[in-house]
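Quick entry, no commentary yet.
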Amino acid sequence: MDKFLELAAKVFKVDVSKLSESTVYNSIAEWDSLNHLRLVGEAEDEYEIEIPIEAVPDLKTLGAFYEYIKNK
């Protein structure tokens, strides 16, 4: 999870201490719709997976994002 939080922090351009597993989409200004898609792309590259576009709206917390990646 720590590595994923670091990735999210890089995408959102925030300090990793501002993020946790329970951080919710749009709960911080930096996690907007554009950065949501950027995080999808970065996660796909970093973890060598493909996240189908229909799954993207369900990834509402960083924890849900991480669980999705972990189960791929």
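second:
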Amino acid sequence: FKALRAGREPRIKQEIGWNAYNALKKRLHDRLLDFLAGIIVEEEGSEEVQVTRELLVVRRFLFYSHFKTARQLLSRAERRAIRIGHYSQLNEIYHTMLEYAHELYPDDQKRIYQKLQNNNQLFLEQEQLNLVYALVRREFERVTPDSPGINLQELLDEHYRKFDISEAVGYNFQTLYQLSLIADISGAHTRNYYSVEIFFLDKIDELAGTPLDSDRHLLYHIDLLYTVANILHRKKQFERSIDYLLRMETQMERSDGKYRKEREQSFRTLMAINLNFLNRPKEAEMSLNCVTQEENAFNAQLALGMIYFQQERLREARSLFARFHRTDTWYEERAGIDWNMHRRFMEVLLHIDLKDEDYAESKLKSFVRRYRAYLQARDEKNILAFIRIVRYMMNHPDAVQSDTFVNRVEASIAWKSHEEEDVFLTGFYAWLKSKIVRKPLYEVTLELVGEGNRAL
């Protein structure tokens, strides 16, 4: 194990031979899986794991004919599984009850069989719901900027009727999280969060505090609140986004905060971006400083770079961007193409402001070579137009305040209303407007993300 971690795999193969190495590696792989499974079962305190443990004990008691204790444990496991809505575990419980019904329930076999049938129906509905999620997500992945809008509520109603799914099964924290992902994907794909309707917000309130709000669904609950907060942020509803982040933080404290560490980075990053757009940059920076040194803190680091840039703390921004020393492919695989484009283009604008014209020009050419085809395929006409404007500014710096340049900008970009404009593009437009009107970048940024303002 230590040799593999140290990269000495070829040496081991040479020393013991290929066949022996493969056998040894497989044995290590199996032992690690057993070890991880044991650790998870030992540390996991959720009711789902408790049911699994009780079923294992029940089978041992049944083997030794301790039927009274086995029956008590089965009843307790059944109550737990019903409480958390775990239909596959309930199937296993009812299967065990029927298998030993002659000893455990000699006069109750028909009732147990009926329970099994009812549970099988619920289990089937749950699987049908997973299929609906896959079908709806596929519909959204087919959406193009020119496609007619998709009404998520109508699409779901159609599929729920098609598969005869009840509302009780159709809305739990897992399915609401899946719906929020679909809505988020739709908004990101079309760059049109304005038309994204989060029709299921009232369902979150209805489920909170009910038996379905269990440890089994806690991570879905947390991620649902985060995704809703992100959608509201992209709709420029920053205060509402913070409200849902605070609700997310409350859920992160449940179960001794077992999910806090793995969700802290996302929570703090989105909180910071909201605070920044609400004219609270110092609080935003403090929120990010706690997580930017963590491994793979890409979003947090980029958000902090954005704050430095908007505050015109250019040397600090340059120092931060210098940390991104890996290849574009490496970042695209881990953080996504859109993240890397955002990072690369912000770096171009930063070096324009630093008066590193040659370096900025080199970076812009590299950006265009890498992403022009991607942007054309997605019909990102405004981004391509903005790139041409930036290149013109670099070649004609004295013309930026002229009427001719302003008219050129107005004619080049298809401006949207404040509500429809993407918040990330608004940030870049703010940089352009700050040059034209000669006002601080952060001041212009707040004006443009504020209600009722347009770019120029």
